[in-house]
Amino acid sequence: MKKFFDSLFWKISFVFLFILVIISSVYMYISVTTAEMYFQETRQRLDTEIAAHIASDNDCFIGDSVNTDVLKNVFHNVMVINPSIEVYLLNTEGKILTYFAPYHEITLEYVPLDPIKEFISLEDHEFLMAIDPKNPTQKKAFSAAEVIEDGELKGYIYVILGGEEYENASQLVFGSYILRLGVRSMVFALITAAVIGFIAIGFITKNIRAMVGTIREFKNGNLNARIKTKGKGELSEFSDSFNDMADTIVSNIDEIKRIDKLRRELVANVSHDLRTPLAIIRGYIETVLIKDEKLSADERKKYLETILSSTDRLLNLVEELFELSKLEAKDKTLQLEEFPIAELLQDVYQKNLIIAESNKIKVTIELSDNLPLIKADVGMMEKVFQNLVDNALKFTPENGSIKLIAERFDNNNLSIKVIDSGIGIDKDQLPNIFDKYYQIKRVSDGKNKGTGLGLAIVKKILDLHKFDIVVDSEVNKGTSFNIIINCTLDCK
Ligand SMILES: Nc1ncnc2c1ncn2[C@@H]1O[C@H](COP(=O)(O)OP(=O)(O)OP(=O)(O)O)[C@@H](O)[C@H]1O
Ligand SMILES: [Mg+2]
After folding, report:
1. Structural domains of the chain sorted by starting position, each given as residue range(s) with its CATH number in brackets
2. Phi, psi of 428 (to 5 degrees)
3. Confidence of residue 102 (pLDDT cuts 50, 70, 90)
4. Most buried of the four, 270, 304, 319, 454, by CB within 10 Å?
5. Using CA positions, which residue lies closest to atom 20 of ligand 1?
């Protein structure tokens, strides 16, 4: 039950109802007071002369004393004709000298004279109210006139017009057909507004409930749950944002799954790649130990060389893994220095000449004359070019060619290309080759003994330097990797 009333529908409904009740109460209050004032104003307009008549038609004083007998009679007659009227005789200070008001004892001794004087002095006065001596907390419509005898101001006739008839609002309302009708119409309007309001709130909260339902569904594992959006406005904006967020979460999950799959493949690859050279090393060492003296010097040398090359492979693999994990942990800071790019490329070229020749691959280098100094980490950049050349050598068959080209273009840019005439990369695979652990599965792939870390390392290093790399490839024609350096920032 508590949960039911906790719902947005009920919260908004209660607030709405509360506002309705407040507005209607204020409206009622204003209507009733206005009606009452209007009633009093009308009385004042109709009976405005009544005090003047009493004052002029009768002798209110005999000398300085009040003509009580005559006045009682006059007051009584007036009230018989108009029972809601109460008449008072005041002296010039406002003291009540005599009065006729049935059923009540008056408590007030003096009546304030300001409204009375205003009433008398202004012909065309506004609606005025003054204190009712019987009930000093209330103000009522009145009529007043000066009592002048022998040219001398003796006092005032003060007539309260409202009388006792309508002392409170409910009496006024239920005493008037029009006001009763007004109240009834207002109650009707209130109920209609409440019903329409509830339906509207119901509609709005229905959409919100649907949204909450979908979000809960998503939270409970249905990753396909999306909020259906209609039209424009805050709610659809909210829904769109949730849907976008859900898409991002789903694509992140897919990405994590993909990386995890690659990672598991790497563990398998690495274990395999570690095991092979280790088995070779172990086998040869065992042979050397067992055969010992029986081995010729040549054989011993050959065995030891094999052990050495297998150890190198292991070392290389472990280094690559270590390198990438350091780059990824952002543990590696760049040792920036200015150096001639031409020299570095020459070095890489020289180092790879022999292995290329032994693979029957032709390596050439083309460096234009105006090559600049670049600001970068030499060691890391050497690794980048070495990895690219390694790949070119690995994926280019006999009699193929590899070119290293460096040139400036568009005045401010430097381009360094490693181009091979090898087996190429399928267009579908191109976007993935920079992912760590990624290797293209080819049918005749006996040659590829790597781990798929080379290009991931290349990309990480270039990202650290904010250099770009573009790859272009055609299957069975060759591949070109193009590194672009912005010389306005990084050259001299
Ligand atoms: N020049 C190239 N020609 C054809 N395919 C290439 C070339 N360079 C990279 N590839 C493809 O991209 C994949 C990823 O390259 P990467 O250098 O990251 O890994 P790898 O060379 O297999 O292993 P590692 O470099 O760690 O020894 C390679 O397995 C290969 O299939
Ligand atoms: Mg490689």
Report:
1. 12-178 (3.30.450.20), 234-328 (1.10.287.130), 337-490 (3.30.565.10)
2. -65, -30
3. low
4. 454
5. 452
